[in-house]
Design a protein that fits this description.
Strand order of the largest sheet: 1-2-3
Number of helices: 2
Mean pLDDT: 88
Number of domains: 1
Low-confidence stretches: none
Shape: globular
């Protein structure tokens, strides 16, 4: 049962395994209930990107972005 007007936005990196069960479990537990989902992968090297790509075949409302990580921004100083 999808909850109308509910969206998911997640930023991930190297999430094949983590203490909560990994990205595959996270997607399976959340995506059936949201109207749209956006996941941004910030440079995974453990296969997370491939899992996200396969998940798009199961969940057409999932959008995956894989931007090039350019490091953290420098803080702005106040004048």
């Amino acid at each position: 049962m999808q909850i109308p007007r509910f969206s998911l936005c997640a930023i991930v990196r190297d999430e094949i395994q983590n203490p909560t069960g990994g990205v595959e479990d996270f997607l399976a537990w959340t995506l059936p209930f949201v109207e749209e989902a956006v996941v941004v992968d910030t440079g995974s090297i453990d296969g997370t990107k491939e899992i996200l790509t396969r998940a798009q075949e199961i969940y057409p409302h999932l959008k995956v972005y894989d931007p090039t990580f350019e490091g953290f921004a420098e803080p702005e100083t106040m004048p």
